[in-house]
Design a protein that fits this description.
single chain, 134 residues, Dna Ligase, domain 1, 2 domains, 4-stranded antiparallel β-sheet, 8 strands, GYF_2, GYF domain-containing protein
Length: 134
């Protein structure tokens, strides 16, 4: 795994080859999420990043969450990345609470594919990857 060449998708286009350390950095920054497909020359198949056995603490989707801990549904700590009014750029909105984001998902104002961040995370994560919103 250490010396293998890796590939990942960006906007549905394969990128690479890169080394395993670059894959780890892309995961840490949130550029590769747990459900994003990556491939390794040694295996040749495309699998979700989770399936390759990377340390889960690298993924912003798991950072700052402790299973079984109560979720502070009304704390405004989440920043949402959305398209600008003209659709030409991405802008940050918030902070929002878990409850507000869940309501925005129900009303389809935002999609589970939108990116989200809060203090303590190393990068952006898709809403669908965060356990607070599942």
């Amino acid at each position: 795994m250490k010396n293998d060449r890796w590939y990942y998708n960006k906007n549905l286009k394969p990128q690479g080859p890169v080394g395993v350390e670059e894959i780890r950095q892309l995961i840490l920054k949130g550029d590769i999420g747990p459900h994003d497909l990556i491939s390794c020359d040694a295996d040749g198949s495309w699998k979700s990043a989770w399936e390759w056995g990377f340390d889960r603490s690298l993924f912003p989707a798991t950072q700052g969450y402790v299973q079984g801990m109560d979720i502070a549904a009304d704390d405004k700590e989440w920043v949402l990345l959305v398209a600008s009014d003209d659709g030409k750029a991405m802008v940050q909105e918030g902070p929002y609470s878990v409850r507000e984001i869940q309501e925005s998902l129900r009303s389809q104002r935002v999609s589970a594919q939108n990116y989200i961040w809060k203090s303590g995370m190393s990068g952006w994560s898709r809403i669908l990857d965060r356990p607070e919103f599942s």
